[in-house]
Amino acid sequence: MQAEQGKNNQNSYHWYPGHMTKAVRMMQENLKLIDLIIELTDARIPGSSRNPDIEKLGAQKSRIILLNKADLADPDCNRRWADFFRETGAYALEMNAKTGAGIRTLSAAVRDVCREKLERDRKRGIVNRPIRAMVAGIPNVGKSTLINACAGRACAKTGNKPGVTKGRQWIRVNGELELLDTPGILWPSFEDAKAGMYLAFIGSMNDEAILPEKLACDLIRTLEELYPGAVQARYGIGKRQGAEPELTLADIARCRGCLLKGDNPDLKKASGILLDDFRSGRLGRMTLERP
Ligand code: G4P
Fold first, then answer.
1. What kind of fold does domain 212-280 have according to CATH?
2. Class of the 19-181 domain?
3. Fewer Cβ atoms within 10 Å of its own Cβ: the N or the C terminal residue of the chain?
């Protein structure tokens, strides 16, 4: 996923659709084969990490929303987001695809969400036909990690089945659920600059298109509002009342010994440290969007 390439784009967060049409076409083909979409969102930004057209794309299909990377997000916000999605009629669960925590609950949820379909099948005399699901989401949200976690656990690829386009593999999670091994790749909102900024914070957008210092300063500003004092606590630096984020960044550089000639703070290096710490959860479990 790349930020828009163009003149003066070093300070802006925009999305460039690029080759997404191909990904959509492939997903539409695969949609014909499945009963259920397992939609992954990033629990730190459950709004901005969703695809704006998923309702339309996934119409007619059952859907479960996963708040993935729940281990990096604020536990209280995880619960609130799950409740929020449930109130809108969707099924939502917390997930940590990296450890597989949540997969067992997912299996139970699939049964619940697809209850009517299973009942219909049973009345028609179709038994033991597993629910077929596709994992879908924007880049870097954890699709492959989830599929691998399910495959590792289940240890069974069911292989090509008659009537299924050659090359597609199904992973049997349990007797009731099979996953398509190819995830549906979706794109985030192209219009919303704030969403673009959040996606850049979590590293789902090509960093190189944005100046790291700008990204780091925007992150400091955002965290100052949502988790005041967290940045200072991490680096053991003092709080500068109402100060520009550049000064906080300079403090981070100094306390980490990132200095240039003449003892000037290396803001670029400090930006890298801050972004890495945020993305890996070392700044604490944080959620940037509230339901
Ligand atoms: P994608 O297929 O949707 O593009 O995403 P992918 O599975 O490649 O995951 C992107 C990154 O997110 C990976 O990190 C992966 O380990 C991490 N990840 C996925 N799910 C979770 C989760 O629930 N919690 C946490 N903390 N991380 C998760 P990476 O740095 O690219 O690779 P690696 O160094 O972890 O192998």
1. Conserved Hypothetical Protein Ylqf; Chain: A; domain 2 (1.10.1580)
2. alpha beta
3. C
